[in-house]
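Researcher: Sequence recovery benchmark, item below. Answer with residues only.
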């Protein structure tokens, strides 16, 4: 017996911004799970900026997607058939076989979650990879301390919105950048940022200097480019930068120039440290222990932008790269 399903395959490697013809919706038949395996019906899948790099055939920290094969990524779903001890029909599990409606996989590759009063999609966002990225980036990579002034770029996105709120939860001053006036209001009014600015409204360096007259001690970088240069320019001595991503350049077809003020890194004794969240999975229990109760108590808010149906997943991904989302972008399947 088999299960009819659909999946998204990479049909062509994008040049610049991805377009619909770079993806293909394919109908497939999946076999029943074998010993120790599960059949999972995905309920939500994640689209994330890092996936753009995996569409290029280049060596990186994670293997590229293969042409004419299904892509993968974070997903949460319901077990519909189990041949594995410890898993029952109806269990909710988190796994990495997104971009498809159903998945057959070993039980060892999934993690059971108990959503309780939270939506299942929260484990793709605030209590999943984005939340862990924000948590580990601030605490372990940037070494955030009491009294720090923290700047977060791309602060209305999944990771940035949580980084800013975690910094505020620990009593620090937080400044954020976002790509619209509406998002700026969201940062201040809904998420409690102390200052925020629209990076499209004027030079980032000038706006950041106005928002941070006392400088910054920590920079959580999701954007790169002019934001990184601006952060170097206003950083205080011994500032610490957690370099999470550089979405401003993900669709570039040629390398962009680096910051023009690199010598200030020396004079100011700055620490710039890149990191990958997969190196910090040991902190997941700490994230759930500290941030989980804060989420349930309403001390940390999380927003989602939800696309409907697997056929709309490629457009959701393009919209994410364009900054059309507020909070975590997910696809409801």
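Model:
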């Amino acid at each position: 017996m088999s299960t009819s399903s659909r999946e998204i395959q990479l049909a062509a490697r994008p040049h610049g911004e991805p377009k619909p013809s770079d993806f293909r919706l394919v109908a497939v038949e999946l076999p029943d799970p074998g010993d120790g395996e599960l059949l999972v019906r995905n309920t939500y899948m994640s689209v994330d900026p890092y996936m753009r790099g995996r569409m290029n055939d280049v060596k990186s920290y994670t293997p590229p997607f293969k042409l004419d094969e299904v892509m993968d990524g974070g997903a949460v779903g319901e077990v519909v058939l189990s041949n594995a001890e410890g898993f029952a029909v109806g269990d909710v599990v988190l796994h990495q076989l997104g971009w498809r409606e159903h998945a057959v996989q070993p039980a060892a590759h999934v993690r059971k979650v108990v959503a309780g009063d939270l939506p299942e999609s929260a484990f793709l966002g605030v209590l999943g990879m984005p939340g862990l990225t924000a948590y580990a980036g601030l605490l372990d990579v940037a070494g955030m301390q009491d009294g720090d002034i923290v700047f977060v770029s791309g602060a209305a996105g999944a990771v940035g919105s949580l980084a800013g709120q975690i910094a505020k939860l620990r009593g620090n001053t937080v400044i954020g950048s976002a790509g619209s006036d509406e998002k700026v209001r969201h940062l201040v009014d809904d998420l409690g940022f102390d200052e925020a600015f629209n990076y499209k409204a004027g030079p980032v360096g000038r706006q950041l200097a106005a928002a941070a007259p006392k400088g910054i001690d920590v920079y959580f970088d999701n954007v790169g480019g002019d934001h990184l240069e601006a952060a170097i320019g206003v950083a205080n001595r011994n500032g610490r930068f957690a370099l999470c991503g550089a979405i401003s350049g993900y669709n570039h077809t040629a390398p962009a120039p680096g910051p023009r003020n690199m010598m200030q890194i020396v004079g100011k004794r700055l620490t710039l440290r890149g990191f990958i969240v997969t190196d910090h999975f040991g902190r997941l229990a700490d994230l759930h222990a500290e941030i989980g109760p804060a989420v349930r108590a309403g001390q940390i808010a999380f927003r989602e932008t939800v696309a409907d149906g697997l056929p709309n997943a490629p457009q959701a991904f393009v919209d994410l790269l364009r900054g059309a989302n507020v909070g975590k972008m997910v696809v409801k399947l």
